[in-house]
Amino acid sequence: MNWQEILLIIVILGTVVSGIILLKQSATKFHLSDEQKKKVDARKKELEAQEKCDD
Fold first, then answer.
1. Total number of domains in the chain
2. What is the reported pTM?
3. How far apart are CA 51 and CA 45, in angstroms?
4. Percentage of the chain with pLDDT > 70?
5. What is the pLDDT of residues 37-47, one digit of tens each?
6. CA–CA separation, 54 vs 47, rounded Å?
7. Vertex 36, ends 34 and 37: CA angle to 5°?
8. Measured between alpha carbons, how far is 44 from 53 in angstroms, rounded to an integer?
9. Residue 53, CB half-sphere, CA atoms under 13 Å: how many?
10. CA gap 18, 41 in Å, rounded
11. What is the pLDDT of residues 15-25, one digit of tens each?
12. Rounded Cα gap, residues 40 and 47, in angstroms
């Protein structure tokens, strides 16, 4: 192996590892307020009602 192949392997491994770290950092959970949870639940019920009407 010459130095160019070693450099290429290091760059590829760095890219993969940095991608995994970025995904881990961006996968944090978010917290909804009670009002936002109610809106989500209401919208979910509306969509379920529409699906029943469509069938």
1. 1
2. 0.49
3. 10
4. 98
5. 999 999 999 99
6. 11
7. 65
8. 14
9. 6
10. 37
11. 999 999 999 88
12. 11
Element (H, E) at 38: helix 34-54
Task: List Cα–Cα distances, 52 to 8, 44, 48, in angstroms.
Answer: 56, 12, 6
Q: In sequence order, what E strands does 1-55 have?
A: none
**pLDDT higher than threshold 80 for residue 28:** no
Contact 32, 40 (CB under 8 A): yes
Q: Hunting for tokens 């029943």 — which residue is that? A: 52
Token pair of 50, please? 């529409």
b/e map 14-42, b = 16+ CB within 10 Å = eeeeeeeeeeeeeeeeeeeeeeeeeeeee
Question: Residue 34's domain spans which residues?
Answer: 3-54
Token pair of 6 as six digits: 């070693």
